[in-house]
Each structure stands twice: as structure tokens, then as C-alpha cells.
Amino acid sequence: MDVNRRGVVVFRIGFVFVVVFELCMLASSNVVFQVKHKYSDTKRSLNALKHHDANRHRRFLSSAELPLGGDGSPTSAALYYTKIQIGSPPKEFYVQVDTGSDLLWVNCIDCDKCPTKSDLGVPLSLFDPKDSSSAKKVSCDDEFCKSTFNAPSDECKAGMLCAYSVAYGDGSSTSGFFVNDNIILAQVSGNRQTTSMSGNVTFGCGAKQAGELGSSEQALDGIIGLGQSQTSMLSQLASAKKVKKMFSHCLDGNKGGGIFAIGEVVQPEVKTTPLLGDLTHYNIELKSIDVNGDAVKISSSIFNFLKKQGAIVDSGTTLAYFPDQIYNQLMEKIMAAQPNNKPRTVEKIFKCYKYSGNIDDGFPDITFHFANSLSLKVSPHQYFFQIDDDEWCIGFQNSNLQDKSGGDLTLLGDLVLSDRLVTYDMENQAIGWADYDCTSSIKVKDEGSGNVYEVVAKDISSSHCTYNSRMILGLLLFLAAILIM
Q: Most exposed: 128, 188, 268, 297, by fewest CB within 10 Å?
């Protein structure tokens, strides 16, 4: 069905380190997903946690290398994944959700070195354009190919397939050609109600994988990019007036649930800070940091870098990462709160405390101050994570990473973003948040009708969906990674 109004896509989230989304049906107005996390049923492994961030960070720093010129932007493969349906009749695929890259691609029939099984316990599938009556291969003279790469090439001439090739920093890569086909969306049409809609998206048909993308460890059917470029699924759906180019997430730091929505959330209201222009990721200007009111001293070189490059907000990375100068001061001020309780080092990188009381009573609040007077107050339970009944580890790391200009990167991940609604608004180039109970309801606006609908996290479940209505709009801001081990 063809729907010309824009709306909101909503997800139910079960969240902590790697997530499985079960979509109830994507939509042009409002859409709903259920999310489950990879480690939600097992004891946390610090090695796995660090490995999760490290892999994302290596990929995040790499360039997308495209035969027709490419966009030169970093890409990242996320470890969150969702189930999507593509084609006519629709077929299900599990894809990683990635805010650090722009392309949606899935493994295709006759793929070279594509994985045949996954250690994540999900079935793997191959997309065959011949099996879908709505599939159309994209040629070099197609407008999508010409406008996306904007560069002539002897390798891509009229009548030839429009090819893509992406190389990741960890040595893995994917290549193939573009296809346009149908995906099904779940539109929020009333309070706790959805209806189905379809939308056409151009995506990569993977013909060859290499490195980790060809192994069974955390193997999935592909990656769905949620970056800002016009090639992303979100941008394509927004251009087709299916959704607004904005999304929000609310992560419950206690039980690991929450909501993710594509489109406009009208309640709770959020205060915003501008996105820094001409940058690939979600960068915002960090002006200062204080620990219980005691300011962290930032050198002029780091301050100038933060003014230009800012801090990257990435709900797909688990921890928070800082330049050495900032990291060392934060750790000193945190540890000064417990002078008689010395931390031990776990797995050579995490500072951990034996603490049996309320963690918020024993350690200081940390507040990050951004442009436009927007602040992010992080309580101890939001920057510590529990590894045993009475043992807590600090979720901060030194980044040990510089960007191409030589500046030290700052990254804020899941732990410090929990228990608040975070909104990414590409239409107005802003990010904002508000402290919020992520187990309660939010309200979303249908752009076409102007109606406002309530979405309650606990009411959005896979039990509301039939087999044919499970779908994804893999738009989780959850992942744009950035650092190396």
C-alpha cells in the first residue's frame, strides 16, 4: 500500500550489549519493534564487553571505499541486530543495526564466503532477486547510482550493475551490487495499535564477504546503516515521505528494556544542542565537565578540538571513552570519594570496587555540559556496572585514539545514555535528551493527521504480530562506534 504521510517508528527494546529486534511491522507513520539483547540471559563477560566496543571502534574508523568514488566517510558495523523482511513475498533477514554507516546490505544468493551458520543462534538466509517479484537490480545509469557516487567511472557504464564495496578497519569487507525492493513497515495508527505499510529501499546485494563478516562468530545476514547520508534507509524513507528524518531511544538502565522510535516524539519534551556540521557521526560540542561541582581541567588543545569535533554520542558503544587528560582526572575524582576502599583492576583495564551499599551514596555525580546550556548528569549507577553481587566496575576508558587531525576523541556510550529519552533530529541538525522513566509510555505524532498516540514499552511485544507482520526499520541510533583497543 502506498502511504504518503510521514510518521513515527517505534521499537520495544530489550537492551544491554547486543540486541535482537523483533519488529511488528514497519510503518509510514509510527512503527514498533521488540528488542532483545545478546547477553541478557548470561553473566556479563568483561572481555566480551570490551571486544564488542573494540570491534565497533575499529570498523567505525575505516573508510567506505566505493568503486565510483565513495563518500570518504567512516563506517562501523554494529552489534545490534534486528529481523527485517524484504521482497514480494517477504523474506526474513537478521541484520546488524549501525548508526555509523549508511548502507543497508544483505547476503545474496551465490555469495562467496558468506557464513552458513551463526553463533548468535539465529537462522541465516540469502536474498535472491529472482525470488522477489518487486526486486529490481540497479544499473550504473540509474539515478540512485549517479546521485550517490557522483563520479564517472570506466568501471561502471550504462547497462552495467551499480556495484558497492565497503572495507572495514578490522580487515573484513563486503562487496556486491545494488538492488531496489520492498520492505514492510509497522505504522503506529492509534494508542497501542499498528497497521502495515510498505516502502521501497535501495540496498546492497552482498556477493562476497571477507574477514569477520565471513565467520560464524556473531554472523548475521547483513548490516543496516542509520547514518546521515542520503543512502541510508532512514534518508530514503524520509525522502519518500514515509517518516521524518529523526529518531529517539529510551534505554532502561535497570532491566534493560526501553523504546526506540523513528519520527517525532512529543512527550517527553527534550532540550537540544546543535549537531556539529560537516561531520559523519553524531558529534556535539562538549564545553565542560564537573564531578560533584568540581571542574575537570581541560587543556586549550583538547578544548579547541572539542569545540570543532565535539563528543560523539553513540548508543551502540557500551562504555564511555575520553582523552587521557580527562580520563585520568575523572578517575582520580571518582576514587577520591572512597579513600579507604581501594579498587582492584579486573582484566587489566577495569577499576572495580567491592561495595555493598547503594552505589549512588558512595560516589559522585558527573555532569557533562554542552552547547546551548544542555547538560547530561550521570549518576554513579549509570557509569558503574555490576559484575557481582557486591562488585562494581567503572565504565570509563581512555580512548587511546586520535582522529585524522590528531585530536583525541571523546565518546559517550550506552551506560551514560540510559534512563533518558535521547532524540536525534537530522531535520533540525540537533540532539537532545530528557531524564525519563523508560518503562513508562511516550507519545508520538503522526505527521500526516497531526494525531498524537501513546506507546507503552510493555505493550509492544511480538505477541501482537503475526508471522507476516514481523518486520524492521533497522533504525536504531544504537551504534556508531569509534575507538580501538
A: 297
Map residue 484 onto helix, strand or coil.
coil
Phi, psi of 327 (to 5 degrees): -55, -50
pLDDT given for residue 256 in this prediction: 58
Q: Given its phi and psi angles, is residue 451 left (phi above 0), alpha (psi -120 to 50 degrees) or beta?
A: beta
Spatial CA neighbour of 21 closest among 224, 198, 210: 224
Mind listing the pLDDT tens digit for each residue in 352-371? 999 999 999 999 999 999 99
Task: Tell how strand 311-313 and strand 283-284 pair up.
Answer: antiparallel
Q: Cell numbers 551465490 correspond to what residue?
A: 110
* Residue tagged active-site, from 102, 314, 419, 446: 314
Which residue shows C-alpha cell 571477507? Answer: 210
Give 226's contacts (C-beta < 8 A, 6+ positions apart): 97, 98, 99, 232, 233, 234, 247, 474, 475, 476, 477, 479
| 24: exposed, middle or buried (Cβ count in 10 Å: 0-12, 13-18, 19+) | buried
Threshold 0.90, pTM exceeds: no
- Centre a 10 Å sphere on the Cβ of residue 239 and count the other Cβ atoms it contains: 11
| Ramachandran class of 71: left when φ > 0, alpha when ψ lies in -120 to 50, beta otherwise | alpha
User: Pairing mode, if any, of strands 441-445 and 366-370?
Assistant: unpaired
d(CA 22, CA 13): 9
CA dist., res. 473 & res. 10, Å (int): 9
User: Is 314 a known active-site residue?
Assistant: yes
Q: Note if 435 is an active site residue.
A: no
Can you give the length of the chain in residues? 485
Q: For 57-107, how does the pLDDT look when each residue is reduced to its tens digit (9 = 90+)?
A: 544 433 222 221 112 221 222 355 677 889 999 998 888 766 667 789 999
Residue written as grid cell 507513520? 29
